[in-house]
């Protein structure tokens, strides 16, 4: 795929080979619905006194607002090959495991292995860099949200 990006200039022509990308807007619509429904159930509140569902709701509305733009600018694409799908799985797998691991290990405990897998095997960074990122990134997220912003998060 990288070799195609080196030659890429502007918008692909409609006569370019490959199917038209209809999937991305549809997936975004489903994901937005998955976020909107529970966020409304959590309660929206107001801007002055936001409820727990307000910010996820507003972010999902931004995604919904982007869908017509995606449909208007859709283009033909080359379907992903096996190595590209493997990279997506290498990111999605650890992220999906992070959610249940957080209950047992906390933010830093669950975040370190996820970041290590992504940095080393997806981004293909060296081991030393991967370990540094795997330790620093979750610790920085914890410091920002738990310590600076007062969000109730468990580190371990």
TrEMBL record:
Domain DUF1468: 24-153
UniProt superkingdom: Bacteria
Claim: Signal is one of the keywords in the record: no
Pfam families the record matches: TctB
Segments traversing the membrane: 22-42, 54-73, 104-123, 130-151
InterPro entries cross-referenced by the UniProt entry: DUF1468 (IPR009936)
This protein's UniProt keywords: Membrane, Transmembrane, Transmembrane helix
Keyword Membrane appears in the UniProt entry: yes
Official protein name in the record: DUF1468 domain-containing protein
Lineage summary: Bacteria, Bacillati, Actinomycetota, Actinomycetes, Micrococcales
């Amino acid at each position: 795929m990288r070799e195609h990006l080196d030659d890429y200039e502007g918008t692909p022509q409609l006569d370019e080979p490959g199917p038209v990308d209809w999937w991305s807007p549809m997936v975004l619509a489903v994901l937005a619905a998955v976020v909107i429904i529970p966020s409304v159930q959590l309660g929206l509140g107001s801007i002055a006194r936001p409820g727990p569902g307000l910010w996820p709701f507003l972010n999902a509305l931004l995604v919904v607002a982007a869908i017509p733009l995606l449909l208007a600018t859709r283009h033909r694409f080359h379907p992903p090959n096996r190595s590209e799908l493997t990279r997506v799985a290498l990111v999605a797998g650890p992220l999906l495991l992070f959610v249940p691991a957080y209950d047992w290990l906390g933010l830093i405990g669950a975040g370190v292995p996820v970041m290590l897998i992504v940095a080393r095997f997806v981004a293909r960074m060296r081991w030393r860099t991967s370990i540094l990122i795997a330790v620093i990134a979750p610790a920085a997220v914890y410091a920002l949200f738990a310590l600076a912003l007062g969000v109730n998060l468990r580190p371990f």
